[in-house]
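User: Hi! Is it possible to get a structure for several chains at once, not just one? Here's what I have:
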Amino acid sequence: MTPIRNITILGGGTSGWMAAAVLSRAFTPDACTIRLIESEEIGIVGVGEATLPQVRDFNTWLGLDEAEFMRATNATFKLGIEFCGWGTSGSYHHPFGVHGQSAGGIPFHQLWLKARTFMDPGSIEDYAFPIRLARENRFDFPVEDPKSIRSAYAYAYHFDAVLYARYLRQWCEARGVQRIEGQVTGVDQNAETGFVETLTLASGESVGGDLFIDCSGFRAVIAGQTLNLGWEDWTPWLPCDRALAVPCERTDDLTPYTRATAREAGWTWRIPLQHRTGNGYVFSSRFTTEARAREVLLGALDAPAQAEPRLLRFQAGRRTASWHKNVIALGLASGFLEPLESTSIYLSQIALTFLMRLMPDTRFDPALAREFNRLIDIEYERVRDFLILHYHANSAREGPLWDYVRTMPVPDSLKEKMALFRHRGHVQQYKDGLFSPASWIAVFMGQDVMPQAYDRQADSLSEEALTGYLKDLKRKIDSNLAVLPSHAEFVAAHCYDPNSGISHD
Amino acid sequence: MTDTPVRPVRKVVIVGRDEALWLTAAVLQRTFARSDLSFTAVELPSLLRPGEVLPTLGSQAGFHARLGLEEAVLMRALGATFTLGQQYVGWAKSAPPVFVGYSSTGVALQNVPFHHLWLRARASGMNVAFEDFAINAACAKQGRLLTPDADLSGFADADRGFHLPAAPYAEMLRQVAVKRGVRHLPAAHVSPVVTGPQMTAVVLSDGQTVEGDLFIDTTGSDARLLSQMPETGFTSWRQWLPFNRLLTTYTAPATPLPAYAQITAFRSGWAGLFPLRDYTAVQQVYTRDELSDDEAFEAAAMVVKMSLHPQATVTPFEAGRRPAWSGNVIGLGEAATVLDPLGSARMPSLLLGLSHLTALFPLDTAGLERAVYNRTVGQAYERLRDAQIWLYSLNKRRDQPVWDHLRSVSLPPELAYKREVFAACGHLPVYDDETFDEAWWIAAGLGHGLFPATHDVRADQLAEPDLIRHFQTVLGYVRKQVEAMPTPDAVSRAATV
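Assistant: Yes, the chains can be modeled jointly so their relative placement is included. Here is the combined structure:
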């Protein structure tokens, strides 16, 4: 077997530099040459970026120092997402953690559902430690003792994706990754095998490679433009196809969560960084105009805008095969799902994890590509169904977009999930892919998909025992909460960037 | 679709026998005792054979905990034993035995899974068996038992299964169930009453009619209730699991007591020894085409090289499954799926059905849960089946018709895919609802000599001395842990005092 000696990455956005980082962590420069081609002339899509807790595994594996990385990227902490205006309750949180604590193997939400039949237990969110933390704008690291209520959550970051890519670039270059400035004008394939052999740059320079990783974003220069790999369109379920992004000044209180607010033809994001707040409006061009979208976005800001809104176009869907011959499409070149659940960095990260597991040699056994594509498909479909749920399960919103998504036919996999939850609060667990039952429960409940009955296992606790259990839990949460610092204080102490303009009082 | 009005499930009737009946009754009663449900167990005559053993996985312990049965008490009362895995003898002619245990093997280095490190070292000439890096295999082979107080943190995931003597185990569960309030009605036979798509009652041999909202069939492979319901046809797995006879007997207890089962292949099947405190249970699996029952008994004695108790029982079986839930009837255990006894998979298949049932216990007779139950449990049974086919397909007994067939038969698609990917690169795809974990599949694959064409390239990035040091650390750790462990006899004796 001949190992791969040259890997060429096209595109220097977040996923390009993440790929370079993973590869340069795994291979010494004498074993494998890693090149990354990027052009200063092509902007990167990176807006204020919200992440999932998995990004911490990525950083840890690279050996990044958390405080240093946070300073370098103007990062703040993230405990989850607040969804405003999606359900009838005004707002709900999807936390990185669970509601309550299960008792005797019975899921907490079943106990809460039972409690509702004989008392008023209050909102289920009152029993979720990470939600309570978020609502009070507090933050602290989770503790390790699994018995403590303060262990029942994880955290992620909000950071500036441009700065993150830059930070990774420095890290990669220090480890021998070669950065090549330039735009690709030609892709040459072997006439017989169809394998890509070289990329030609505008300068005339040509860059070879055994393996090419296409991180060229929506343009998908190799995977799309050259190989014409198929694209599965998910617009019928996820009709949003535009985003306007704009930064604004940061506000005094630093929220430890992302906010996603439903709007007339889509939704707006709000991502707090140390030095500014990232905002955007994801909308469907079928249901609104760009001018109107601009109006909605600027009207939604909670501080003065710092720039003109920038327009991005996209289409929900994924490449039918992300790995084809010696080309692997990564990030936006491989698929696009709107950032409603902050999944884009995760999807690049998991693809890199799979690639590491299935790294080919120069024979490129097709079994490897097949397995890679199977695993990627599972990831994308799981996220897709979860996103569709947010749109489809809306009983409160008016307007043509919302009428459309409420009545559209949804994938059978989702239909069955919703029916079982409505019937008895049951969530089927799956092994691969994102979103544990806790996530599904948060969104179902938040968006008024309320179970008609509870699982009879919850009868194991008598009414009296259950009342006591809930009271206890609330008391435990209250007492643990009160001693924790505010998010702003925590960031200032842990990873403050002196140039961010964060206040110190 | 149905004329019968939907009503809540209140009366649950479980019809069956032996461990399947009583484990189901005890667990359901325990789980839903405070709900508005009543449980009736209609007990048919036992089909347990003298000396019969129920080999099972560590997950059985979760059910014991749920029933409030203390492990030490249970082990002592039954004369049950712990098992760390199975040793396969004669899977290839003139190859050493292969141990497939319930533990991880080795430890990852720099995020590179251990088996890739081992594959790299093997390619450059290292000659230490994969199983030597597995704590369970090492313990078992050196006559030790891994105890739960062993500190394995960061070094190994390990579990132990059980060998349970069938008759006393079923009796213990019966007592638990009845004491907790399950109504017990013995019957010589039953006649189900089906109206449209629903079962309404069973009529017992004494003429008594037992009505119910939900019926659970634990009658065994006849599926006396479930088979009366629509769309419950049996799908045979004969092409992959061709053995169709199980001979059961027993012999003297082994001294010293081993903490594993030994499975020995012979021309027409295999014979297994399952050590218990007071005797050794013997199972032999073969095909009717190759051996008469008398020949089988003689063959068993020759294969295990022991004199066996002549009171041997032969039970025909055919591996396969039927949809487990139809109308208001749910089959558990062999009423839903019949597995080959290999890999101790029969009891775990009962546990699978039961745990899915408690999670999806129907609220009413509409049975909205049915579709998802049938799909997930069906997949889970098939993955368990695939694990058995995996073991069989890895044999290298050339020129023996059954074994040649097992080695060359085209595999079910999910398993064929798994094998293809593993053989290509050493990565093992794991699906939803698998009973056996990745470590088990890899241990079986590498143990039986299925070596991937390549390994993780990251393994080649590690410096040779680091790799050697890592192997030595793991071996040293395994050795140290094994030395600290008691013998199975000591554990058994301690439980007896």
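Chain B has 14 helices and 22 strands. Residues 370-393 of chain B form the longest helix (24 residues).

User: Great, thank you!
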